[in-house]
Amino acid sequence: MAFATQAVDIPQLIDDNRIGRFQLLIFVLVGLTVVMDGFDVQAMGFVAPAIIKEWGVSKAELGPVFGAGLFGMLLGSLSLSVLADRIGRRPVLIGASVFFAACMLATTWASSIVQLELIRFITGLGLGAIMPNAMALVGEYSPRRKRVTLMMLVSCGFTVGAVLGGLLSAALIPAYGWRSVFYIGTALPLLMALLMWRYVPESLQFMVLKQRRLDRVAGLLRRIDPGFVADAGTRYQVAGPAARGAPVGELFRQGRATVTLLLWLLNFMNLLNLYFLSNWLPTIAASAGLSTQTAVLVGTVLQLGGVLGTVLMGPVIDRIGFYRMLLPSFALAVFSIAMIGQPGLSLPLLFLVVMVTGFCIVGGQPAINALAATYYPTTLRSTGIGWSLGVGRIGSIIGPVLGGELIRRNWSHSQLFLAVAVPAAISTLVLLCMAWLARQEQGRGGEAAPLQGGGPAPAGGLE
């Protein structure tokens, strides 16, 4: 229990208490918002066959529609994450949920490819704000001992949303048409926005650093520690500097430039891999002679491996650190990806190497998001995650396009997957560089030590 006349270290108070119902409710509601993010991003893929049939358009004509959504998400990640570090995570999360709910409704009114492309681009702007702010808010209400696990579990909601979207679409489209998917996609985010407005508070660290709504801080701390008492003389402390200048520029100051660029490169390479595999793996499997049903199952196993990776990596990272987990995972991915394209691979072995690839690549992305969240201080956290993801989304656009071009050039399956193993190898080298930098900073008592994961948080980590 904190004494009223003492300075209260908010991160330490969170660390010293068990995770209670108040925090669990925040995690669940924010996680459900990420679920809706995944549902919406994948919605176009699920309704595409019905639109092609109803409008009489070709598959190729829908390509720009998918690209427009991803490009919108890229811009949303870059711009709205910066806004969140100025006005708060809560208003941006709620506003983005209402915004993309309205865009989902507008999608039902589209009657041409051009209209659909414009609406999906605008929708992407709102969707790009969800993941960076969800990760930041969950991290700032989590005790350090469980922080990475909780952030990765919430991030896993994106994949859960994609799976649920597929199940709902399969049930709704035959009975009610493709627009019914977007009606559901309108109602649920609005419901989530209302629940967040009622039950999800702003980050405590953010309020203290920005000196906003300090009258609410004591009440929120009592919901974490019922024995906490404060009076007019109580001061609150968080580890981290106050914001100076433009948030994006701050990512390159105070020794953060190298790690920032490495995080951007890591996100770029992994999302290039992830989106190539997600988009092309079933098609390549079918062209190799597998039945359509088996080819779809191969793609599903990739995502299943990703869910397993997300669930299992988090607790391990909390115990042994990011690099001891991610370095062997990405090194293994180099070999598992290359194995996918080898001729004469038996079906059980194909499923095994695809699942391992999903574990390492799809499951590794939430860990990369958590790595960024752990590195940046409160005033830069949303900006840091958002710009890492935003730059990474360039890779998510290039990956499928590059795959299509290589397939058009008649590359063999073996050549294709050897090429796709290269970004995983680059990711491994980037992680080696980051691990070396973190070790050097830790030896000097610097601020990059939190990148090791686990243990007490030095200044500059997630406060």
TrEMBL record:
A GO molecular function assigned to this protein is: carboxylic acid transmembrane transporter activity
Major facilitator superfamily (MFS) profile domain location is 26-439
Instruction: Report the SUPFAM superfamilies cross-referenced here.
Output: MFS general substrate transporter (SSF103473)
Membrane topology designation = Multi-pass membrane protein
Instruction: Indicate whether Membrane appears among the record's keywords.
Output: yes
Looking up InterPro entries in the UniProt record yields: MFS, MFS_dom, MFS_trans_sf, Sugar_transporter_CS
**Could you tell me the keywords of this UniProt record?**
Membrane, Transmembrane, Transmembrane helix
Gene3D superfamilies membership: MFS general substrate transporter like domains
GO CC terms: plasma membrane
Q: Which CDD domains match?
A: MFS_PcaK_like
Query: What are the TM regions of this chain, as residue ranges?
Result: 24-52, 64-84, 91-112, 118-138, 150-175, 181-200, 261-281, 293-313, 325-343, 349-372, 384-404, 416-438
Where found? Membrane
Q: Which PANTHER family match?
A: CARBOXYLIC ACID TRANSPORTER PROTEIN HOMOLOG
Name listed for the protein in its UniProt record: AAHS family 4-hydroxybenzoate transporter-like MFS transporter
